[in-house]
Amino acid sequence: MSQPSQSTPAALKHAGWGAQHPEPCTLVIFGASGDLTHRKLLPTLAHLDFQHPLPKATAIVGFARRPNTDEQFRKDALESVDKFSPADEEPLDEQAKQSFAARLFYHQADFNDAAGYKSLAELLDKLDHERGGKGNRIFYLATPPSAYTTIIAQLGAAGLNRQQREGAKGWSRVIIEKPFGRDLASAQGLNEEIGEIFREEQIYRIDHYLGKETVQNLMAFRFGNGIFEPLWNQKYVDHVQILVAESLGVGTRGGYYEEAGTIRDMVQNHMMQLLCLIGMEPPAAFDANSLRDEKVKLLRSIRPLNSQEVAARTVRAQYRAGQVDGTEIPDYRKEQGVAPNSMTDTYVALKLFIENWRWAGVPFYLRTGKALPKRSTEIVIFFKQAPYLLFAGEGEERAPNVLIVRVQPDEGIALQIGAKIPGPQMQLAPVALDFMYSQAFGAGTPEAYERLLVDCMLGDSTLFIRRDEVESAWTLIDSIVNGWNGSGRRSLPTYEAGTWGPREADELIERDNRQWWNP
Ligand code: BG6
């Protein structure tokens, strides 16, 4: 047996490419002038290239309607890299910036203009020819969802969906952003249309939460350690809480939010993924299908809610004006793009049950909202009390064993245990055994998008969402939304911005003699 290690070897601080190195490819970003491209994709690609240089022939083509030149696109891209790179990332030096900029090209066309895709195909061939590329392509749909099917159909018509083109080799993949549909029917329709053009192995449905190091660490924690899994079930777990709190309001995204609401924006995707990783059975192997099979099994074990269950086990609410950290947040209904009588949820709390042998009877309480007191994503597992209370001391009831997985910020995992307070009495107080990423591995975990872009380049879809997975999640969400729509309610509970949510949500958990765990 090997000795316990006492420190983190320096080599572990930044895991590199390892045995796998991506083949060169050309990444075409649709929606190249948009927010996602400039805030996330370009800064992430620039840092990736700086820290783990991409193959020389790899190129990035921005596709958008707006007239632009390669030079201007490069200039704008470098400005975005400066402006939006995370503060804890090492800044790019001048040489790195120039070598990244040299990979960038701009292609102007309308999304529905067939000629624009023909000229795109010519540009891609030309770039391959000049740069020594291998005909590999990734098409990233960073556009509003309304453009997805148009772009996909045009890619098909131009033959850009084919894995092997005439006279050329290479693969073709498509990355699709959320929201993927707005209910089960539309997600199925979208899947059908995309499925006509691309095979399932070519489709990478992204959920950026799966790219977060701490989210992947949930699997490492559960399946890479022998001591927790035996406790991970209804025999030892009292209940689980999943919190995704955001301190900002909807800001300039009111128009989008009116269509989505928190249930579609956060619960259908990010929260369901966290729930899957916490609750699923160990996969047979760490590969795309084994892992996603388990997630689908878990989603199918959550029975869609009927209208009484929706009334009893869900709360939706909207923020009123208030302050978060000294910043004024207006009433949601007064935000830009929001209807004055809007019924859109900016906060959702749910109590769900996973109906299988492992989790029967264990409530999973999910809570997410905008304009809450702080930004914090945490998964908290509450273990049952010891079977017999040996120390009748005051503090004991108040020191349950709780495992807190801090997904962000202050990434880490803490285990709360009861410890004896020094002194003549046998009195316990809760104390924490705490693991912090920044202490163990140094500051700065890689951006979620970085990992996902690399995985797509490597052809690994383990951290992307499969068709049946997205549809299973919608089945549950539809049942909740239908319950809400059928309730005949004309108003929503509200909460003041800067508070932890409406009274109704406190009542939801207090009815079970439990309380929300606020970070
Ligand atoms: C996005 C949602 O998917 O996730 C946003 O559309 C939300 O509304 C964001 O703010 C949260 O992501 P993160 O990584 O900041 O937790």
Straight-line distance between termini? 38 Å
How much of the sequence lies in strands comes to 15-25%
What general form does the structure show? globular
For the largest beta-sheet, the strand count, sense and barrel status come to: 9 strands, mixed
Contiguous helical run count: 14
Kindly name the structural category.
Answer: alpha/beta
Instruction: List the strand order in the largest sheet.
Output: 16-15-14-13-7-12-11-8-17
Q: What's the number of extended β-strand segments?
A: 17
Q: In which range does the helix fraction lie? A: 25-40%
Tell me the Rg in angstroms.
Answer: 24 Å
Low-pLDDT residue spans: 5-14
Q: Provide mean pLDDT, rounded.
A: 92
How would you sum up this structure, described in words?
- With 519 residues, the protein is of the alpha/beta class.
- It is 35% helix and 19% strand.
- Strands 16-15-14-13-7-12-11-8-17 form a nine-stranded mixed β-sheet, with helices on both faces. It has a six-stranded parallel β-sheet with strand order 3-2-1-4-5-6, with helices on both faces. Strands 9-10 form a two-stranded antiparallel ribbon.
- α1 (35-51) crosses α2 and α10 (307-313) packs across α13.
- The structure holds 6-O-phosphono-beta-D-glucopyranose.
- 6-O-phosphono-beta-D-glucopyranose (BG6) is lined by residues 178, 246, 265.
